[in-house]
Amino acid sequence: MSRPEDVTWEFGSFRLDTAQRLLFRDGELIPLSRKAVEILIVLVEHQAQLVEKEELMRTVWPDAFVEESNVAVHISQLRKTLSAEDGYRIDTIPRRGYRFVGTVSRAGSGSKGAEPVAQPSATVAGAAASQLFQESPNRLPATSQPLSAPKTPRGAAEAWLFGVATAMLLVAGFFVVRHYHANHSVATPPATSSAPVAKYAIFLSEVANNTGDPVFDITLHEAIATELEQSPYFTLIPEARLQQSLKLMGKPPDTPMTAELARELCQRNDGEAVVNGWIAKLGAQYVIGVRAVNCRTGDHLSDLQTTAGGKELVLKALGDITGQLRARLGEALSTVQKFDTPIEEATTSSLEALQAYSIGRQMMVQKGESAAGIPSFEKAIRLDPSFAIAYAALGNAYSNLGDTGKAADNIRKAYELRAHVSEHERLYIESHYYQFVTGDVEKASQVYETWAATYPNDEAPRTNLAAIYSEMGKFDRSLELAREAVSISAHDGQTYANLANAYIYMNKPDQASAVAHQAQSESRDSSTLRLYLYDAAYLQHDEAEMQRQLNWASGEPGIEDAFLDNQASALAASGQLQQARDLTERAVGAAKRAGEMGTAAGYEINEAQREAFFGNDVQARKAADSALAFAKDRDTQCGAAVVFGISGDLNRVRAIATQLDRDYPDDTFVQYLFLPMIRATAAIRSKDPGLAIKSLESADAYELGVEGELLPVYIKGLADLQAGDAQKAEVEFQKIIDHPGVVLNSPIGPLARLQIARAYAAEGKFAQARNAYDEFFTKWKNADANIPVLQEAIQEYSGRWGGQTPATHPSTQTNSH
């Protein structure tokens, strides 16, 4: 290492005399060891540049062998000294060396920074690349003399760790199962801090295995993905998008991955670089390489290779050079240092465990077969019982299959082991633990906000936050986050679906339809998107469009049942209860055949809720019992308890409420939404409206959110009517009328007009009352005649207005049940 002549450097209040090997601050000598000062001199002389550890040790200890730990002790001493002055520090570049940060000048030069120190050299390529990236995120530094890496066909092993967030831990909706949005999981940063920034998209191509050992076939791709995804500034192009691009290009999924095809796929998905790797065996050693190519120009951006002395050292060696690759591609050295958990710590030190995990990920994410992935995840855990992210993936798979108990058990285990993961994985595990295990959505939202701020180009936390905030009733923030997710992952059809859903909740069906049609025009159609098109059409009273979506889903296994349930709710909302029952029976049967018992339970709860609010107590309790026979998860128990409260089975209400309170002590919605509703329904049935109103006070914060679908508002209105406070009841029922995008085809939608009519009448507002009655009867003009709540409404109307009957009431119908 070349050394300038002895000079005196100045930075801040410090003065560094290289001739005497002394450091002063404000003229006072700072007591430091001589070697610490010599280290500081080397770093200052190469300010803003990486100084490799080996080079630093050769310079400071030219005639002696020294352990790296000795260097670390002196670095620690220097950091404590520099901490007294803002703007000056020593950064550690993991597995490489150190860098001095802060402007310095020669003493007497007249101005700080007038004579900059050494220019960038070959040893500081990472620092130079970092500066280039910060100045122009769309440019990449190029290197020369590429290494030759063997080419192999691209296999199915190209999984994207933490792929589309909506593939993770799908959560069922409460009562009416139409929360199709992704669920998607600490100090809370300002909301604006999560806005996405310029991103650097990478296509992680194949890792060629030339060892003959199949354990490397999938594992190294997963390991590189783990390392790259620790970066806040890189984003990996998901496998689903690559497969979609191949389809649009008219190529089969298993098309051999040539360099030209990789570059084209990268360009089609707005990527910057293609990264691939290779491994070969040379005697007892393994030679490992990674390469990055500019996908627009074909220029080689970085070629790195290293050796490992044995199979057990391959993951560590691969992590070392992939960490270097991040710096070479322009990531700031500070974030490389901060987010660089070694691969063997972030995942597992066992190649066999990582291989099993990778196979499971391949089955669950790429092929959409969660059940098929479970044996592989379980094998990974057997091989390494401390494999945290494997537990999270296993919990994910069980959740996708509706087994919330096993899902929670495995996510809880991942949470207990989260000290052994990367920062990215820790945020994922903690957010999902709070959201899906404890149910503390306030804590979950805090972690998601931190995740979004830390990883500004990750759509997953924004997708999950959008879902949580809509559940809470924070619709403006939910819409903002859904928009951000689309801007980050515009190629992902699910982000469009989530945005459409956010518009529906805000009663903006035109915008929702526009978003959905845009996604379809870009070949990003999906069953979820179609469900939202149905919902938008429902709000627009466009029966033709609703029928088009039903026709599209007709006969499609795994899809049709959700549309049948949606149509059943729509028919029931118009009073056509028998047809609704028939469709629910078909939906439940389809879910049962698919083994989705939790989904079947949700459909039964929907029917039970309708029957209860319409006054069919016996049918309501029967449907609720059927739901509990299918599943006893949180949502099914909550829904059943409300039904039992409305229909008068108060012993069942008390038993379930006690169980829920014991099982979910930290669950935000159980404690502050569902239990208050359950207790209030029982109080109303017991003719104690005061107790009902008091019980619902704690639900105020979340009453307008989609998690409760305004049921607490409706129940509070019923309690106010029963208490004789018609004015307050009017306010509550008007809230329901004012939020059609949240209510959609819930039975309380039309019933709110009937109840507000009763409130108007009790207040003496007879003209308004009659109009409200007429609106209800118009909505129920095709209703089954023998629904108790309808018969009561007709009697009230004719009794109040001198024997007149509403012109639209279905008194001539003779439906039998």
Task: Provide the descriptors you would attach to this structure in a database record.
817 residues; Arc Repressor Mutant, subunit A; Rossmann fold; 36 helices; 13 strands; 56% helix; DNA-binding; OmpR/PhoB-type_DNA-bd; TPR-like_helical_dom_sf; repeat
Task: Give a verbal description of the structure.
With 817 residues, this protein is of the alpha+beta class. Among the domains are: 8-119, Arc Repressor Mutant, subunit A, CATH 1.10.10.10; 122-149 and 196-342, ABC-type transport auxiliary lipoprotein component (Rossmann fold); 571-800, Serine Threonine Protein Phosphatase 5, Tetratricopeptide repeat. Helix content is 56%, strand content 9%. It contains 36 helices and 13 strands. The strands form three sheets. A five-stranded antiparallel beta sheet has the order 4-3-2-1-8, with helices on one face. A five-stranded mixed beta sheet has the order 10-9-11-12-13. Strands 5-7-6 form a three-stranded antiparallel beta sheet. α1 (34-45) crosses α3. The longest helix has 18 residues, at 597-614. It is elongated and about 110 Å long. The N and C termini lie far apart (92 Å). The relative contact order is 0.07. Residues 109-198 and 812-817 have low confidence and may be disordered. Keywords: DNA-binding, Repeat, TPR repeat. InterPro entries: CellSynth/LPSAsmb/PSIAsmb, OmpR/PhoB-type_DNA-bd, Sig_transdc_resp-reg_C-effctor, TPR-like_helical_dom_sf, TPR_rpt, WH-like_DNA-bd_sf. TPR repeats lie at residues 388-421. This is Winged helix-turn-helix domain-containing protein.
